[in-house]
Design goal:
The complex is a heterodimer of chains A (about 550) and B (about 400). Chain A has 14 helices and 19 strands. With about 550 residues, chain A is an alpha+beta fold. Chain A has three domains: about 5-50 and about 370-530, Up-down Bundle (Multidrug efflux transporter AcrB transmembrane fold), CATH 1.20.1640; about 60-145, 2-Layer Sandwich (Gyrase A, domain 2), CATH 3.30.1360; about 215-350, Gyrase A, domain 2. In chain A, the strands form five sheets. Chain A has a five-stranded mixed β-barrel with strand order 9-11-10-16-15. Chain A has a four-stranded antiparallel sheet with strand order 7-8-2-18. In chain A, strand 13 (about 270-280) and strand 14 form a beta hairpin. Chain A starts with a helix and ends in a 10-residue tail after the last helix. By secondary structure, chain B is an alpha+beta fold. Chain B folds into three domains: about 10-40 and about 210-405, Multidrug efflux transporter AcrB transmembrane domain (Multidrug efflux transporter AcrB transmembrane fold, Up-down Bundle), CATH 1.20.1640; about 50-120, Histidine-containing Protein, Chain: A (2-Layer Sandwich), CATH 3.30.1340; about 125-200. Chain B contains 14 helices and six strands. Chain B has helices spanning about 15-35, 45, 60-70, 100-115, 130-145, 150-170, 190-195, 215-240, 245-265, 275-305, 310-320, 320-340, 350-385, 395-405, and strands at about 50-55, 75-80, 90-95, 125, 200, 205-210. Chain B has a four-stranded antiparallel sheet. A two-stranded parallel ribbon of chain B has the order 4-5. In chain B, a hairpin with an 8-residue loop joins strand 2 and strand 3 (about 90-95). Chain B is elongated, with a radius of gyration of 30 Å.
């Protein structure tokens, strides 16, 4: 019992150090300490105010759009192969019914029986993402293959997340959350959390207004300022042109203005995809794809304008200017980019042109900072009052041993806070519920142990024996109660949503900390107190 | 100091009054749920919009209600929410039939407040309900017009300070521009320009929550399912550690606590929100803890006293743990009462659920969970005495044998 007192003390000291480090770091001053505390213990939106939006991506729009495009392309391909048809349609989707995404079907009617195999070949070769079903000798139906359908839906959600993230960046917030939410592949939900922004109307405005992406032809530029550009053209803008500023990039001083055509060559709706890459010379580039329709127009335009420049304009800011080197149809590259970052950014801008599908708001909460502050304050005060009462009663009822319990309780709180900080968890109101249950069970563990020790003392055991038996008997009970609760937490975590999850996480951490503090730490303190004297006859309990 | 020393109350002998009381409470609660108040779901679970508004004076609830009902379809509830930490506050709730109305309803509610209590047509900005960006924009123009030089940086700091003063010092509601005179960066020139472009409406929208009905229904199902799974998980674990009937007893006791608490919520027409669910989970954990402590003691006692009737063993276990039960429940109750009394309106539902839960949870361990185990064992004993005895596995017979050799 006494033998490993020292090593146990070291374990406890190290634990305390690690935890304190997690909570306040290594502060250099008092204000530093407060700042670190605030950074490490992050409060949820319900406690500090902010906006919380859950929106659902209308993936059925994207699937329907894919169907529409496929029909357009099929018409072209079939014409090339001299295959005739009488009708080609795809089924409609209802707004607000994401499940319709799984039922988009293209119906092709009136393929002459003699051309069946030719038709089948075209579909198999050119439209590998679709599976073909024969309805009768001349009619067919086509559906996206399940894996391609899933990929399209996932991609739609990811792109929407990207786009919304880009737009919210305009608010210049230090913290934001834009992530996929709920079950992937069936809920299509996106969670947007913006601490400190209590005006979701503005956020929604930002998300709702489609960012306008255009590819414009550059007439003249760059100029150092708007005035310089105007001076160049005798004070008036040429017909059908506009002046656009470059988006400032890191490491670039001054402004750059370009004179571009008012009618865009291509708009964001025609941009299908874009990705960063490297060319043969290992220089960074961004390649992009256009819709078949846009590709045709772009082909005609680029063919006629080789040597001229094009500007990628996002929300009226130029993000890139490039020279046309050859005819570009539905896929092209913007080469000669300075760095990987530039290539990644550019592809993101091109992709974020427009939301790939509409969004519907399923949930919207805004908690004003005043309310957050009040609820924290009241809750904190009440919590402190409650805890103070508990500490008082414990000290009064168990005297010296009560100090053990209070120390264990304190350490438990420190460990809990540190764990939250290390796991980057957020403390919310339901999380505090978890903390309250933890404290309740921590008090209970101590009470259990103390009552047991008293019982053993009453039974006439010596102090040391009573402490040992008390701990070992109470330990079994503590393990049973704690494991049961952890089991329930596991289920809550697996099947619960948001707040229920937060409750489960804090409670689990708290319970693990509690087994450590109530059993291990408290026992060590008892042992330390009993080891000092040769013969202990009384115990203050 | 010790409160209970070697007590020997006959707890299980007095189980019937408590069981009857429980049944009455359960029936009353369920009756209220099904035939009277129903479940007063918060917007988390039924979908809808909820707006917390703080007024500069005692809120004219009736006026708000009639103004809202005129402009908004469906049921409108206006409730006085005033308390020590939330002076002059009301909560306005409206129904939301469709996800698409989310945006419209918020706008409608704000418009009604504005036309009823604000000055919607004077072209000025309502400082009590503005955001940082809007205020910065307005002030920039106003200051430029008034010829007060200011950099963007300075302006940004000023706006942040103004809003911080409004939200932190005055709980979101300024009633007089002079309250802002001491804000860092403020001077008479700026104040003048500021007063030109803004006015102070006598209300402040502190919180808006909107949940689509579909999401609400989903959250409800998920919360209930998660709790049921958690109960099932605990049942399996306790069955594994004790005997299956103990697991069943503990889970029924927990379920009983939850049902009664939900019933009490319905009786008092208290709202069930997401935080109340967190409280229900807390009380399930609490009640389970309480039950296991007693079961554990019963198990321990059974090992040493094989020849004693189970009821006596149980009574002894309850008496032995009485002191701990009173201490723990008392202390937890103390904390929860503190939350209930001083925690403010946000924690009201949460702490109310815990206050009910702790009372019910404490007695259910003794008077619900233990009797269930007792009933089962006396039932199997009677059966065993009858000539047709179901073939039990040897291990089970052996284990049960230890619990009631005398009967």
């Amino acid at each position: 019992m006494k033998r490993n007192l020292k090593s146990r003390a070291i374990v406890i000291a190290v634990t305390i150090l690690i935890c304190v480090l997690g909570i306040i770091g290594i502060p250099k001053s008092w204000s530093d300490l407060k700042q670190n505390f605030r950074d490490n213990i992050r409060l949820g939106l319900d406690l500090r105010g902010g906006s919380h939006l859950v929106l659902q991506v209308q993936v059925q729009d994207a699937v329907k759009a894919d169907g529409d495009q496929t029909i357009e392309r099929m018409k072209e391909e079939l014409k090339k192969e001299n295959i005739t048809w009488t009708d080609m349609t795809d089924s409609d989707v209802r707004p607000d019914h994401v499940e319709d995404a799984d039922n988009v079907t293209i119906t092709v009617k009136g393929i002459p029986a003699t051309m069946t195999s030719a038709f089948r070949n075209v579909i198999a070769d050119r439209f590998p993402t679709y599976s073909l079903t024969t309805l009768n000798s001349t009619d067919y139906s086509m559906k996206l293959k399940p894996s391609d359908l899933l990929a399209l839906k996932t991609d739609t959600v990811t792109r929407t997340v990207d786009t919304i993230g880009n737009r919210i960046d305009q608010l210049g917030l230090s913290e934001k959350t834009v992530t996929q939410y709920g079950r992937a592949g069936s809920d299509y939900e996106i969670l947007v959390q913006l601490p400190g922004v209590d005006d979701p109307a503005r956020v929604k405005e930002l998300i709702g207004t489609a960012a306008v992406l255009e590819i414009d032809d550059v007439k003249d530029g760059p100029f150092a300022s708007r005035d310089a550009a105007l001076a160049q053209h005798g004070g008036v803008l040429p017909l059908n042109t506009k002046l656009v500023k470059s988006k400032p990039r890191a490491g670039q001083d001054g402004e750059q203005w370009f004179l571009v055509g008012k009618t865009p060559v291509i708009t964001g709706h025609e941009m299908r995809n874009a990705r960063p890459g490297q060319d043969e010379m290992r220089k960074w580039e961004t390649s992009f794809n256009l819709s078949p329709d846009g590709g045709k127009r772009f082909g005609r335009y680029t063919e006629a304008n080789i040597g001229n420049r094009l500007a990628v304009v996002l929300d009226n800011q130029i993000v890139s200017v490039a020279t046309i080197e050859s005819k570009i149809e539905d896929s092209g590259r913007i080469t000669g980019l300075g760095s990987e970052d530039e290539a990644v950014d550019l592809s993101r801008y091109l992709r974020s042109g427009s939301l790939p599908a509409g969004v519907v708001y399923n949930e919207e909460r805004s908690i004003g900072p005043s309310l957050g502050a009040d609820s924290i304050h009241a809750g904190l005060m009440a919590g402190i009052a409650g805890l103070a009462a508990v500490v008082f009663v414990m000290l009064f009822y168990y005297r010296r041993s009560g100090i053990n319990a209070v120390l264990a309780l304190l350490l438990n709180t420190i460990i809990l806070l540190a764990a939250l900080s290390y796991f980057h968890a957020v403390l919310t109101l339901p999380g505090i519920a978890g903390v309250i249950l933890t404290i309740g069970m921590a008090v209970d563990s101590n009470v259990l142990i103390f009552e047991r020790i008293r019982e053993e003392l009453r039974a006439g055991k010596s102090v040391i024996a009573a402490v040992d038996t008390g701990f070992s008997k109470a330990f079994l009970t503590i393990i049973d109660t704690h494991v049961t609760t952890v089991v329930s937490c596991a289920f809550l975590f697996l099947f619960g949503e948001g707040p229920v999850k937060g409750f489960a996480v804090t409670l689990t951490i708290g319970l693990i900390a509690n087994v450590f503090t109530a059993v291990f730490v408290s026992k060590t303190i008892f042992d330390y107190e009993l080891s000092g004297h040769r013969r202990v006859e009384t115990l203050s309990i | 100091m010790e409160l209970f020393k070697n007590t020997n109350y006959d707890f299980l002998g007095k189980k019937w009054p408590f069981i009857i009381a429980s049944l009455v409470l359960t029936v009353a609660g369920l009756g209220s749920v099904f035939f009277w108040h129903g479940m007063n779901y918060g917007i988390d679970f039924k979908g809808g919009a909820m707006m917390t508004v703080r007024f500069a004076y005692p809120p004219p609830v009736d006026k708000i209600r009639s103004a809202m009902s005129h402009a908004i379809k469906g049921e409108v509830s206006v409730e006085n929410f005033t308390s020590g930490t939330a002076p002059n506050s009301v909560v306005i709730g409206t129904e939301l039939e469709e996800e698409r109305l989310l945006n419209k309803n918020r706008q409608a509610m704000e418009d009604v407040l504005n036309t009823t209590f604000g000055q919607p047509n004077n072209g000025k900005l309502d400082f009590n309900n503005t955001s940082e960006q809007t205020l910065a924009g307005r002030l920039r123009d106003a200051l430029a017009g008034a010829g007060v030089p200011m950099t963007d940086q300075q302006l940004q700091t000023l706006v942040t300070n103004l809003l911080a003063a409004r939200d932190k010092q005055y709980s979101g509601l300024i009633t007089d521009f002079h309250q802002l005179a001491s804000v860092p960066g403020m001077n008479p020139g700026i104040m003048n320009a500021f007063e030109q472009v803004s006015y102070l409406a006598p209300f402040h929208v502190a919180e808006v929550e909107m949940v689509g009905p579909k999401v609400g229904a989903e959250l409800r199902t998920k919360a209930v399912l998660a709790t049921l799974y958690a109960l099932a998980g605990m049942l399996v674990y306790i069955a594994f550690r004790f005997e299956w009937i103990y697991g069943l007893g503990a889970v029924i006791a927990c379920f009983h606590d939850t049902i009664i608490t939900v019933g009490v919520f319905s009786l008092f027409n208290e709202q069930i929100s997401m935080t109340v669910i967190a409280a229900l989970l807390t009380l399930v954990g609490y009640s389970m803890n309480d039950t296991i402590v007693i079961f554990d003691r019963i198990r321990e006692n059974l090992k040493t006293s094989r020849r004693e009737p189970l009821e006596q063993v149980m009574n002894r276990a309850v008496n032995q743990t009485l002191s701990r039960t009173v201490m723990t429940s008392g202390l937890t109750f103390l904390t929860v009462i503190a939350l209930f009394l001083f925690g403010g309106p946000v924690l009201h539902g949460f702490s109310f659920a815990l206050v009910c839960g702790i009372i019910v949870g404490t007695y259910s361990s003794v008077f619900i969970a233990s009797p269930i185990v007792l009933f089962w064992h006396s039932y199997t004993d009677k059966k065993r005495k009858s000539p047709v005895m179901p073939a039990a596995s040897r291990a089970e017979t052996a284990r049960k044998g230890t619990t009631k050799a005398v009967k």
